[in-house]
Amino acid sequence: MTTSNSFVEHKENNTIRKSIGNIIKSACSAKVIKKRLPIIQWLPKYNVTLLMQDIIAGITVGLTAIPQGIAYAVVAGLSPEYGLYAGLLGGFVYLFFGSCKNITIGPTAILATMTAKYVADYSPDFAVLAAFLTGIIALAMGILNLGFLVEFISIPVISGFTTAAAMQIAGAQLKAFFGLSGGSGKFFAESVYNFVRNIKTANLWDPVLGFTTIVILIFLKKVGEGCGRKDNFMKQLRWFTSLARNAVVVILGIVVAYVFKVTTDSEPLVLVGDIGRGLPKFQPPPFSTTVGNKTYIFSDMVQVLGPQSIVLPLVAILESVAIAKAFAGGIQVDATQEMIALGFCNIMGSFVRSMPITGSFTRTAINYASGVQTPAGGIFTGFLIILALSLLTSTFYYIPKASLAGLIITAMFSMIDYTIFPKLWTSSKRELVIIIFTIAICLCVGLEYGIVSGILLEAAMLLYSTAKPSLNIEIVKRENGDLIILPLTGNVSYCAAEHVRRALLQASQTAAMDSVIVVDGSNLKHMDSTVASNLMSIVKVLEKNSCQILFLNFSSDFKKMCLVLNPTFANKFVVASNAVELIDITQKNV
Amino acid sequence: MTTSNSFVEHKENNTIRKSIGNIIKSACSAKVIKKRLPIIQWLPKYNVTLLMQDIIAGITVGLTAIPQGIAYAVVAGLSPEYGLYAGLLGGFVYLFFGSCKNITIGPTAILATMTAKYVADYSPDFAVLAAFLTGIIALAMGILNLGFLVEFISIPVISGFTTAAAMQIAGAQLKAFFGLSGGSGKFFAESVYNFVRNIKTANLWDPVLGFTTIVILIFLKKVGEGCGRKDNFMKQLRWFTSLARNAVVVILGIVVAYVFKVTTDSEPLVLVGDIGRGLPKFQPPPFSTTVGNKTYIFSDMVQVLGPQSIVLPLVAILESVAIAKAFAGGIQVDATQEMIALGFCNIMGSFVRSMPITGSFTRTAINYASGVQTPAGGIFTGFLIILALSLLTSTFYYIPKASLAGLIITAMFSMIDYTIFPKLWTSSKRELVIIIFTIAICLCVGLEYGIVSGILLEAAMLLYSTAKPSLNIEIVKRENGDLIILPLTGNVSYCAAEHVRRALLQASQTAAMDSVIVVDGSNLKHMDSTVASNLMSIVKVLEKNSCQILFLNFSSDFKKMCLVLNPTFANKFVVASNAVELIDITQKNV
Fold it and tell me: Per the database record, which ranges form the STAS domain (chains A, B) (predicted)?
């Protein structure tokens, strides 16, 4: 096989320096502006047919966005209208910056549950500031072109995180589902503990409605299977009812609660209750706030948000990119662009009291199924939410919390990828350890710690394998003593320095008297000063044992790296293109 | 060059599983006990000649260990006798477990400065508990065979940390050196700020004595150059005075202070003052303590020590291993053994109220220069310290703090490796960034954060380069359309998955109609499920574009990893030993 072409660019170790230069350059060119404002690409081709499709999809998504928004506001411990505020501007902003037509931006269960502890311990102002900071950090990461960071999160870690998040979110809903008294718990373990402790306080009607909700959701999902937007009317109806099933169960819940109220004048179900009416004022996010009688200025608030203010945008980006990948159909997803879009969505959102938002899997799937054509669909979802906020808040009073709990728990079941466990058991036990570790830390310490620990564990395992590059020693026969050749290939980094040193010492010990040890750098692509230092110290040790060592075909950079440590060893560096030439050189040198 | 032999063991990715098994096995065998108790190897060969040499070296080291111990106790903010307690047992314990004859265990400037904040904010009990925990963690790491972890710390990070520590330690001594009032500061920046702010409170005699101390130390160092233990009497005297120079300047300081006292009945110099007399009681370390009127139980104390309880043993191990390497003369240093030795030294030390201890560079150098033969030298250092604690504590009252400050500052100047900066500037700017970053974080945030950040930055850079393995596409000509071959070599991990995917998509876009893309796994040593998942999703994309793709010579493990995700692609995996065979296969398949 002859190498006739190598058109894949090969980046060397100076990429980091380069990329700093690139950041500045890339922020300016006209081509980049077009890339960073994807609307410029599709708007000129926009027409009425596309508009109609976007309207249908946008409204269908809205029918899920409203009940899910209310549900996730409840997950975050916020008043329900916050879930609608969070859905208000995402679509409008994503219209300009979004690169993936299917994605719908809004509140999600994971971000809501990560925001919950601030709301519980402090006030909703912290959720709004968290959205603002999430936006700022995501935008900054986008501008710094840090999209590649997403590549450092492997599938087992993402999957473990998602599974644990789903368990935690569902666990926290047990309280509402059974109408229990007491707290719900911030942890999965705590939720389960509280559930068991308070089980005796369970209401009759709440779990009945909750289970009914789940059954109806599963039924309606089945009903829509095999039906599509372009089928006959009956199938279309089944398809649409299935897509709007979240709205259906919430409306049913409202009807049940209202009937109870009217017929028996009682409220046996726990209801959502009063909802702030009307649209939020457009105003800057709260940079200072008062909780109880303590005033928090901006720096205090940031301190309260703590290290999680870094993890929130990371998770937001991750959710969005993962969803984009799932719906991109193999087309390249530009993580940097998603960072920029999410950044603007969250920043703008925080001006209308939104909690942190990102791409939602459920609603993106509905958007896709409804045949959305451009990110313009999001506008119509937004209009529907504005309508709901203006007209329907008094109706929302009657939403039973058990309906929302049923809705959330059902959504969570579909978030867990059950198949990954047997797959990894068969194919990669090491990765099974990673996913279980990630889930355990998520459930026992917290979601944010779990994802970070998972990433670090996997990175540590990778570094560990990097520390032991395979060193296959070759022996070249020579008249007066053999040549023992140790080829250094690819990247040999500081963590492999000791490994190389051990191999060389071992080689020198087993070598016969007249042998020459040759460190072959012909295929060495990267080394660092720790490796250079070890190589030079080895020379001294081997010289003490009167053992010859030579460095073959080291590039001028690597040679310089070694000689700067010990210039007297310049004569140890030789160049040869084949074995014969090398033998020649060694015979002259000895 | 023919490969006739490859005797360097090549570990596969299941090393982690293996090593857990090894831990249990390795803890038991007789051979390992001999390795883990190095005294068994050298004691049978011990004789009077060796004993005499060890006695001379031990006492010479003692003459530095006493003044340095007092000085480092002052650095930690402890009463001076703590520095002597810290030197008491190290030598006796290292005798059994130490693998490097030159190393002397005791208090060091870096560990003292890292302990200082606990003593300042709480009490000496925290320093003693820190020693105990350092011991427990170091021992646990040794038992778990984690010596390899040291290899993940590169020379730039170690050097940056040492430089920053030296600057911080010297900076904190400015107060004592100039006899200033006010605090000295926990940070380098804070120390310098306090120095400038309080400069007007400077004493006359303290800086005079301090500068004199430095001048004498430099002079005595020069005096000993070129002299050795086996020279004539005059040269021997010069050599010994030079080695004992730390004791000399402290004795001179004592004399000056005493003369002041006797002649003028005044104390114009700031003195060390009263020292606890006699040997400490042998008792367990404080597992609970009272500071002010608050009682801290064990868990509270551990919480106070915080994450630094992990960093302290790491730094202790690092110092010892770095010194062992410097004096091992190229012989393999067993980091695991050093962990075990340090573990026992610190645990035992905490029973006599020692602060955290490790190998000391200065005293190890003196030990080496004095011709020590076995770790038995440490016993005699220990005896000298016992003598000092029993008899000399009233003399120590007169030690001027400025003498100690001069001594510490001089020691710190020699700890900084000035040459590494121009070397890295010439040979590796990337590593220059790492060293400067490490120093900056150490000086501005804290030593423990600096070393951890440095390690993480370097690991991140390494992972980044791992994420972009070079993919050199080869084209094999065929009658009906070319074969585009993408070889995956070595380790292809999750962070490279996107890179591989991009390369494949790019290849498919530039390929002609009848081309077949072949992913060559012949030299693939490691892959994971994220890579497998990307490869399988690529197949779907390429099939949509009716582009052929084949997987060549994937090992059965890797094939299984892919097929568990999508069993229908089994026919895409082919085996061929050369180009002709491969062309045959592709022609059948198409």
Answer: 473-561
